[in-house]
Amino acid sequence: MKLMFSISLFLLLPYCTRQTSDVIIESTPASSIGGVIQTELEKTVFLVCTLESGTHDDKELVWLRNEAAVDLKDGNKENRSSVCISPVIIEDEGATFTCHLKSNASNKASVTLNVTYHTDISGLEEVTVEDGESLVLQCHMRANPMVTSVTWKLNGSLVDLLTSSFIITSDGITSKLQINKVERSLHEGLYQCTATSPVYGERSKSFQLTVTEKTLKFPLMPMIAGLVVVCLTALLAIISRWRKIARCCK
């Protein structure tokens, strides 16, 4: 019996703790029980903070975004204060907005934004590389929720990693396809990077790779330096020769 009473008291504790604050936040869209607001990129979130009950000498309200103060206009501070986030951007993901009494920071309420968005990959990119050079193709796959898989295809077929000419790496934000030494017969063609999201489905980006003949490259700077040295040497030799001729003529 005592154990059941203790469990009931424990479950009621968070509710009671929340009720000790006179500050409440209402939002559009509405937040969940845990104070999380679900939204998407480019949407608008409207927050209203109100001072409910109790006697307070100071009724001025303060807004914080991740502990940084939000600039409020006069007339938007006492008893009721509102904040509009429009449009919602990627940097708002996970941001916590807190409203509290200026005279008592412990008298507060908070909500957190959960911003969902798909990967920003699309379109066709033209890529040109010389035969024998290295190549890196990149797909930025940052998303919320995170993508579940990323695949690379060449001319409609999955790239063959067993040939050891392809190297695929990923850091959770960017997927890279690397070729250390490009060969026209093996690597030229249409590449496609596809990211799969549990919410937004598949998104793809294509790369049209053209492999050109290897050009003979001259070391320009060493050549210029060599020419300068040769010219200066020749000039000094001519000056020295003229000096000898001038002495003979005297």
Explain what you see:
This protein has 250 residues and is an alpha+beta fold. The protein contains three helices and 16 strands. It has helices at residues 2-19, 184-187, 220-249, and strands at 23-28, 36-40, 45-51, 61-65, 68-69, 80-85, 96-101, 104-116, 124-130, 135-140, 149-154, 157-158, 167-170, 174-179, 189-197, 201-212. The strands form four sheets. It has a five-stranded mixed beta sheet, with no helix packed on it. A hairpin with a 2-residue loop joins strand 11 (149-154) and strand 12 (157-158). The longest helix has 30 residues, at 220-249. The chain is elongated, with a radius of gyration of 34 Å. 17% of the residues are buried.
Offer a quick outline of the entry.
This protein has 250 residues and is α+β, with helices and mostly antiparallel strands. It is built from 3 helices and 16 strands.
The fraction of residues assigned to DSSP E strands is: 35-45%
Q: Describe the largest sheet.
A: 5 strands, mixed
Structural class: alpha+beta
Query: End-to-end span in angstroms?
Result: 129 Å
Separate helix tally: 3
Mean of residue pLDDT values: 84
Indicate the low-confidence ranges by residue numbers: 1-20
- What is the global morphology? elongated
Helix content: 10-25%
Radius of gyration (Å): 34 Å
Q: How many strands appear in the DSSP assignment?
A: 16
Q: Largest beta sheet: what is the strand line-up?
A: 2-8-7-4-5
The sequence of SSEs as H and E is: HEEEEEEEEEEEEEEHEEH
